[in-house]
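Let us practice reading a record.
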Amino acid sequence: MSAFPHAKRRGRVIIPAPRGAAAISIAAFALAGCVGASMAATALDTAAPEPPTKVEREPPPAPDLVNPTGHDVRGEDVYGAGAFGASRGGGVRRHRGADYIAEPGEIVRAPIPGIVQRIGFAYRGDERYRYVELSDAVAQRAVRVLYVGPLVEVGAVVRAGDPIGRAQDLSVRYPRGITNHVHVELKQGGVLGDPASLLPAPADDDANLSHARSTI
């Protein structure tokens, strides 16, 4: 006789539920399946979240115009005033630029974006003092910054605010107590104009160029 008796009812074969060790094995298999599924679900729930995607931000645009030293225009001293159009030579001539106060050795920055067109000497026969000349063909602007020890070369492309040199000490040439400065001449469309009417004042410039007084 078969170890697993069966009965026929209405044409169907009915297999009775297993007994003994076989029943225990099936129950254990089913329980293991439930536990495994539960552990898999828990693992999915506790998995570490994916790190957020890093959003690349574009750098802020460079300013169009910059105060070259971050300081104010030179006031009155024994050699005159630093404003554009101030009297020179007892009224014989007028100041062709604006003088921006500068400490000797501090960084001087490009007032406009453009190309370094020329580096020369501020005074004929005196090779101690230099100038850097920039031009911006798009805006039809050109500037010459005097009393600067150059840190750029002719042909260099600079942005407004880039270092172009270090302020030179004027006390040797003007020993009676001149306010040290850099002299800026500006032409707009070929016409000489007042740089202070175009370039930012110190307070405004600090917002655009907070490191104006820094060194390299």
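A brief commentary: The radius of gyration is 41 Å.
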